[in-house]
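Protein 1 of 2
SEQ + STRUCT:
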Amino acid sequence: MKKTFTLSLLIGATFFCTNNFLNSNPVGAPAGRTGSPADGQTCGASGCHGVTPTDVNNVITSDVPTTGYVPSTTYTITVNITGGGVRKGFQVSPQNNDGTLMGTIAAGAGNKIVNSKYVTHSSAKTTNPSTWTFSWTAPAKGTGAINFYGAFVNGFSNVSKQVFTVQEATGTNIAKNNDNNQFTVFPNPVTKNVSVSFYNNENSNVSINIISLDGKQSETVYENNLNSGIQNLNLELNNFKAGIYILQLNVGNKICYKKIVIQ
């Protein structure tokens, strides 16, 4: 009777340990797993997930304008993992080829900083899609293009990687970033409140609409006449169900768009 009881405990313990290893590390990836030239490995390395990662696009996105980042400006970086994996996680770092952190990073909800230059999940997610955001403050003028290296886990045997590049705004591009067609939305994903920041060159009517991807839902959440200058608007989005939407900013006769995730 005693032997049977001991064997049952051993079987239960073995299953518990194995089950914890089946998916993304629930408290974050160890440092140096982004796949960057300096790191030389991803979460697929031997001793971790032990699989060859696939190359993907559009897992890492940002609100850096197409004209490039403005030095010392803070932007939102988004990691969005889709798929049916039981647990999902990531690690991202903006680095040069020597592994030096480019700019500064600050963790958002559900993620943390490791060894000062890596952002990783602090709690693995099970939703599809699973989304995290963190802040990145661009480096000094003249730094040039920045590569964000990222590795992603979608269940134990599904590891992928991406190199996401942002350019530096130079010359006339910097001036364009002071135009009202450049704006930031934070945080993203949104829970209840969101901050919309932009610059308008002249006094004008400003309105903000939230539009569902299928176009069936559209609601004006802000409208007012504003003086010229930097604008920071705080909006409540309690009336919207969880999903992906388009935030439409109308400033005078100009219209700009930003994709947002409402949780």
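Protein 2 of 2
SEQ + STRUCT:
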Amino acid sequence: MNPIYIIQNIDDVFSPALVFYKDLIRSNIAEVVRLAGSAKRLCPHVKTHKCREIVRLQMDAGILTHKCATVAEAEMLAQCEVPDILIAYPIVGPNVGRVRALVANYPKSKFSVLCDHPDGAKGLSAGWAGMSSKLDVLMDVNVGHDRTGIKPGPEAAALYEQIARLPGLSVAGFHVYDGHNHQESLADREAAVKAVIGTVLELRKAVEAKGLAVPRLVCGGTPTFPVWAKMELPGLQCSPGTFVLYDSGYGAKYPELSGFKPAALVVSRVISKPTPMRVTTDLGHKAIAADPPAGKRAVLLNVKEYSTILQNEEHFGFDTPQASELKIADVVYAMPAHVCPTVALHRRAYVVENNRVVGSWEIASRDRMITV
């Protein structure tokens, strides 16, 4: 096991527990700035960590534009006085009023939202009636992920123009998320990005011909970040998210991102030994994300050889030839395969510095509402 993860005062840690390694987080932030070439070229997603203290560490590194998916995450960013906050999600229904409240309550932050449909644009405009300032709107461009967004072409150009003409709204650029591009080969990811960037630039040219500005291109996620980071496009901002904590799911796949180190673990303990080869810990799927297939949800750092047999709400069982060596209450360090939803399962994270727990940080925006 890598000694950087060993916690000397482990008896102070209840289990199962989320643990953040502060020095590794700082290192990951420095690495993302290095790869981007400038902190100004970054718009990182907070959905991975949902934590004020990590936002402040990023701001200390000069990252002043941040992206989120929920109104609660936007409020958390505003509480940190982030100057530029992009809610990278279609804002509809009562959430328009919640964004209005953010604008009123947090004047030091500027907010922008996404739109990908004419009805959504009309709803934003109607919901913004009476506001003294316009709402910045980025058009969500679908480049193949098919989750949200409008495909590049005449309909997209018409939507961008409609947003610009509607009362209360101001067009602010394109949001281009390519979450479907997570090929292991960097060359394959480069080819995939190059296959879509042409259509995005054609769309930009088409709307600029209508006299409309496209000041921002917020592009990519963590897998394609190294591809976008090499591009020199006016207004480009790269928006990785997982990099800040990283995880075993990414770490094994992308050698060109080897400068990022997993900075979050889940500490668990042996609670039972029901058979000679079986060890059961308290690492249930209420403590670590259950979206990878069973058996692939965690890497146990201090167990050399094991086979995952079961996992349910409060139990994680594995067979290992080391079973006789593991005692009841022994600590098992688990690295999540998918850190983002793992973080959302915990209200607080223990914080480790120099191999010792030094405090805890609140996962502030794991809830859907803070105050707004």
